[in-house]
Design a protein that fits this description.
2 domains; TIM Barrel; alpha/beta; binds indole-3-glycerol phosphate; eight-stranded parallel barrel; three-stranded antiparallel sheet; EC 4.1.1.48; globular
């Protein structure tokens, strides 16, 4: 294998990069390499030597090395596709270019300094590792069987619409949130089930349960526990979804809805995940923070629920004016035409804040800090709306 001018790995009919989502699950999973489902095809390597070109079947180390190279190249291309959609969040590089790789120079330069550029990128890279490990313990085939035992999915959007009609105020998604990277610990005596029950009693239409452990001190046990305790509000699994496997996992843990973050997921991933959500009976809340993300998401078929996050997840800056800005003009017309429900997310503390985003056009709000911090979170809801919304008819 010495003196190779180049080494190409040919796949047996993989989908082209441009037509395949980043988290694509192949029909048959042959576990060639842990990270890339792309590599789940049988592989042969074509070696071009100086004398000419010959196709040889390779095995052992050379195939492994060829796979590593291909995986790295595919990762780079996927980030390029994402960047072309304005996505700044890069996915975790496996571990830099494979040893001895003599590939395109610009790729090597781009991949230097393998450290995340901001908190969202750090969380996503961490999630990639976490999901890879979780998946090994619970392969998709196992999750698919477990779906049958999951509690039936509840109508998340229906609950928001009903609440909005009942109260004349935005339907509340109340968040069970112990901590966040921007605010630290929000509540020391944190009993997720107690908080969830207080929210439900206080008039919340739906609940959002943080499941990320490392940065938000949440867990899937919290989600499962709340469902099992008999809380009736539909539940949003508040997670950083980077892989379609997580959708199945969330459903087996009792989630009725999941969050898809447009700053992290390219269009093709969002489309693909929305299809899987529909298959599983999950509602997708697709989150945007700026005009470009909003326009991308508005162009995707089948989206019924969009969250406008007032917090920039790269810098933590909060500005509730973002909701107003994004709903002005043509975009506002499109959401009304398509009957999409908009959720105003983050940084809402007072009845004035609620009135402001309602005026901007939201039919729902997602609130954590301002209500979870109060000793009685149910009372927190009344303070947020300026009245007891559990009683409103
Ligand atoms: O606690 P706040 O400011 O009321 O925000 C709640 C919710 O909007 C926020 O937790 C959130 C919105 N989108 C997210 C994405 C990931 C993590 C957290 C979030």
């Amino acid at each position: 294998m010495e003196g190779l001018a180049s080494l190409k790995v040919l796949f047996q009919a993989p989908p082209s990069i441009s037509s395949r989502p980043r988290t694509w699950i192949p029909p048959t999973q042959v576990n060639v390499h842990k990270k890339s489902s792309f590599l789940s095809f049988s592989v042969r390597a074509q070696v071009e030597s100086n004398e000419g070109s010959a196709t040889v079947a390779t095995s052992g180390e050379s195939v492994t090395e060829a796979l590593k190279i291909k995986e790295w190249e595919v990762g780079m291309l996927q980030d390029e596709v994402a960047a072309s959609q304005g996505i700044r969040i890069r996915r975790r590089p496996p571990s830099g270019p494979p040893l001895h790789y003599v590939g395109p120079f610009q790729f090597r330069l781009q991949n230097e300094g393998n450290t995340p550029q901001n908190i969202l990128e750090e969380i996503v890279w961490n999630k990639d590792v976490e999901v890879t490990q979780l998946k090994e313990r619970r392969p998709l085939s196992v999750l698919k069987k477990a779906l049958a035992d999951a509690p039936p999915a509840r109508d998340f959007i229906g609950a928001l619409r009903t609440a909005n009609q009942r109260t004349g105020l935005p339907g509340l998604i109340a968040e069970v949130k112990k901590a966040s990277p921007s605010r630290g610990i929000l509540r020391e005596d944190f009993d997720p089930v107690e908080i969830a029950q207080a929210y439900e009693k206080g008039g919340a239409a739906c609940l959002s349960v943080l499941t990320d452990e490392k940065y938000f001190k949440g867990s899937f046990e919290n989600l499962e526990g709340i469902r099992k305790a008999g809380v009736k509000c539909p539940l949003l699994c508040k997670e950083f979804i980077v892989d379609a496997w997580q959708l199945y996992y969330a459903r087996t843990k009792g989630a009725d809805a999941v969050l898809l973050i447009a700053a992290v997921l390219p269009d093709l991933d969002i489309k693909y995940m929305i299809k899987i959500c529909k298959l599983l009976g999950l509602t997708a809340l697709v989150e945007v923070h700026d005009e470009r993300e909003f326009d991308r998401v508005l162009a995707i078929e089948g989206i019924e629920l969009i969250g406008i996050n007032n917090r920039n997840l790269e810098t933590f800056e909060v500005d509730i004016g973002i909701t107003k800005k994004l709903l002005e003009g043509q975009r506002g017309n499109i959401i009304r035409e398509k009957d999409i429900i908009i959720v105003g997310e983050s940084g809402l503390f007072t009845p004035e804040d609620i009135a402001y985003v309602q005026e901007a056009g939201v039919k729902a709000v997602l609130v954590g800090e301002s209500i979870v911090k109060q000793s009685d979170p149910g009372k927190g809801i009344s303070n947020l709306f300026g009245k007891d919304i559990s009683e409103l008819k």
